Structure formats: structure tokens, C-alpha cells
Amino acid sequence: MISLTLKYALFACIATLVNVVVQYASLSLYRGPYGLYVAMAFGTLAGLIVKYILDKNYIFNYVVVNRRDDTNKFLLYSLMGVFTTLIFWGFEIAFDAVFASEVAKYWGAVLGLALGYTTKYQLDKRYVFNGQARE
Description:
The protein is about 80% helix and about 0% strand. It is an all-alpha fold. Helix 1 (about 5-30) runs antiparallel to helix 2 (about 35-60) and helix 1 (about 5-30) packs across helix 4.
């Protein structure tokens, strides 16, 4: 059996990979004004959806009562992600500005996502799923 910490880290890696791949795809299609920000928005949304599904079902074992319950949980989960998204975006933008390199930009994203997910787990456990994670 995989520990909760290892499972959470694996899911964070999956969501990070989805985020970065979607960003890369977005930048391949559009490199115009604010292209990085458009890519970050699409990547963030894709990663958010994947991470919510994985966390809800396999970390917190939350059973949805109905569609409205699921929607409310997703909105609260997303709200908790606003602060952590700012961490991630801050690192990505900073790495892009400081190092001016495609690779550095993605390393900034990965580092920012790792720090953000660590914080997000605690927020989700306390406020979204109310301590329902198996320890």
C-alpha cells in the first residue's frame, strides 16, 4: 500500500506534468502578446481539474452527495488554490524574467508548484475536506 504522502506527491507530479504540458502546447499555438500568461492560465486550469479529481477520490476519499455538493467542493478547493497559484505563478514569472530561458521558466513552474502543493494540502485538509484524509 502506498503511503498518503507518497500518493499525494505522485498526484502533485501528475498535475504538474499536465500543467506544464498544457502550457507548452499553448505556447506552441500562441506566442503573441501575453502568451506566457495565457499558457499559465490554461495550464493552471488543466492541472486544477486533474488534481481535484485525484485528491477528492484518492487522498480525502470524499464521496460526493450530489452534483451541487461536488460543485461547492470544487469551488472551495479552487478558492484555496488562489494563494498557492500566486506562489506558482510568482516563481515561474521570476525564473522567466531572471534567467530569460524556456527551461528556466519551466523549472520555476515546477518549483512553484511543489511549494504551492505542499501548502495546498494543509488548506484542503483543514478547510475543504475537513480532515478526511487517511493518515
